[in-house]
Design goal:
The chain has about 500 residues and is α/β, with parallel strands linked by helices. The protein folds into 2 domains: about 5-250 and about 460-480, 3-Layer(aba) Sandwich (Aldehyde Dehydrogenase, Chain A, domain 1); about 255-440, Aldehyde Dehydrogenase, Chain A, domain 2. It has 15 helices and 25 strands. It has a 7-stranded mixed beta sheet, sandwiched between helices. Helix 1 packs across helix 7 (about 210-215), helix 2 (about 65-80) runs antiparallel to helix 4 (about 95-115) and helix 2 (about 65-80) crosses helix 6 (about 180-195). It starts with a strand and ends in a 13-residue tail after the last strand.
């Protein structure tokens, strides 16, 4: 039976005011309805924003370590429920179960990291140029945040936003993808059970057009953190800029792996396979391009094609599955359209290229792992984000040519190089124009203790996750405090002598 999912506003689970609903469907089996969710409208968002605004002052004044303790309790609860949540991620989003469990583990890691960060949130104390005066900077929360998340990491990406924003003292309205609304509800249930006060965390379900845009533009929202497509992110950024709102956008990618002539080809094939077809290519960091040195191009293509031919499609809950479904009908059609574009552009289809409807996959959105060979870097399939199990193989003359191929797109999220030459790796580190660079590893697999994000059209504003420049920067603003205990009027820059 489908689960009846509700909004969470001011500490209560309630239906949408208008009574409209949406369905969450298992992409591996469209006869399996996972949840009935609210199709929220403006009145629901107004209520959620009002609740968050009313809760803000008390939450802001709650000592940060106390806020962190709630997040740490949520981490412990996530650990206990990891298996169930991982299976739900797989059923609702489609990724293979080991990846579904990894999705939850990333949320656990972020909860522990950000819960502990509550005892730091460090500023700076520096000496004054005047006697009997001290100077310091501190972090303070920004206010009420709208957190808008996609479907491809239905537990991890919400955790990347929820835990730091709450630890920093903001109150939030969380708007998840309608395709993975049940996962979002389970995560919010855990945080609520961990002791988050009413109004501090609010969950509103709905579509991007009806719910997301109105939420982002709402006058009661002080900041927006968005993960999704570049087109939507740029639209929201323009909207928020006009309204003087803080905004951070983690957007698309057209990531590439360089395979040099001295690379360990078996390792590079594993990396390209994992980067291109892990999560069915539905990652912003997916390795959708490979720039292989001309000396090893043919051998690498043969090895990669043979390895891809052995990948098994099916429900992510099956232990034999390597590649699950894509998320929905429209995404499947988009990917198939790109495959046709690649053929018309003159790229050679080495393997795959079709929807897969055999056996247990008959009722799902499955596409064969697809590899295009002899791709020109200027082809659309090599320039535009496909977001599916499609890999483009491009021939490179040398390292400089390979780096130019990687950089010559509008995105700059993740890149990788396979080489045994330390000088090649050093040059790649320096010259690859991406936010993430991997050496002898694939383009996916970022760890939460470092900032996550990209250059060019892959990101706007502060980075996600941990480390210097990460999410703490997004969810706080700086306040500088000068305290003069001299008992006299001292004039900085004037009374120095």
């Amino acid at each position: 039976m489908p689960q009846n999912i509700k909004n969470f506003i001011n500490g209560k689970w309630i239906d949408a005011v208008g009574g409209k609903t949406l369905k969450s469907i298992n992409p591996a089996d469209t006869s399996d309805t996972i949840g009935i969710i609210p199709r929220s409208g403006q009145k629901d968002i107004d209520m959620a924003v009002s609740a968050a605004r009313n809760a803000y002052e008390k939450w802001r004044l709650t000592p940060a370590p106390r806020r962190g303790e709630i997040i740490l309790r949520a981490a412990e609860m996530l650990v206990k429920r990891k298996q169930d949540l991982g299976e739900l991620v797989t059923r609702e989003m489609g990724k293979a179960l080991p990846e579904g469990l990894g999705d939850v583990q990333e949320a656990i890691d972020m909860a522990y990291y950000m819960g502990s960060e509550a005892r730091r949130l460090s500023g700076e104390t520096v000496p004054s140029e005047l006697p009997d005066k001290d100077c310091k900077s501190i972090r303070v929360p920004i206010g009420v945040f709208a957190l808008i998340t996609p479907w491809n990491f239905p537990t991890a990406i919400p955790a990347w936003k929820l835990f730091p924003s709450l630890v920093c003292g903001n109150t939030v309205i969380f708007k998840p993808s309608s395709y993975t609304a049940v996962c979002a509800a389970r995560l919010v249930e855990i945080i609520a059970e961990a002791g988050i006060p009413p109004g501090v965390l609010n969950l509103v379900h709905g579509t991007g057009e009806e719910t997301g845009e109105y939420l982002a533009a709402h006058p009661g929202i002080d900041g927006v953190s968005f993960t999704g497509s570049t087109a939507v992110g740029e639209k929201l950024a323009k909207m928020c800029s006009a309204l003087d709102k803080e905004i951070s956008c983690e957007m698309g990618g057209k990531n590439a792996i360089i395979v040099m002539d001295d690379a360990k080809l078996e390792l590079a094939v594993e990396g390209a396979l994992w980067g291109g077809f892990g999560t069915t290519g539905q990652r912003c960091t997916a390795a959708s391009r490979v720039a292989a040195h001309e000396a090893v191009y043919d051998k690498f293509l043969d090895m990669l094609t043979k390895a891809a031919s052995k990948l098994r499609l099916g429900s992510g809950l099956s232990k034999t599955t390597d590649v699950g479904p894509v998320i929905n009908e429209s995404q499947m059609q988009k990917i198939l359209n790109y495959i046709e574009i690649g053929k018309k552009e003159g790229a050679r289809l080495a393997i795959g290229g079709k929807a897969y409807k055999e056996g247990a996959c008959a009722k799902g959105y499955f596409i064969e792992p697809t590899i295009f060979a002899d791709v020109n870097p200027k082809m659309r399939i090599a320039q535009e984000e496909i977001f599916g199990p499609v890999v483009c193989l491009i021939k490179a003359k040398d390292l400089k040519d390979a780096i130019n191929i990687v950089n010559d797109v509008k995105y700059g999220l993740s890149s990788a190089i396979y080489t045994q030459d330390v000088n090649n790796s050093a040059i790649a580190e320096r010259d690859l124009d991406t936010g993430l660079v991997y050496i002898n590893a694939s383009t996916i697999g970022a760890e939460i203790q470092l900032p996550f994000g990209g250059t060019k059209k892959s990101g706007l504003g502060h980075r996600e996750a941990g480390g210097r420049g990460g999410a703490i920067e997004m969810f706080t603003k700086w306040k500088v405090i000068y305290r003069d205990f001299s008992g006299t009027l001292q004039k900085a820059q004037i009374d120095k002598d």
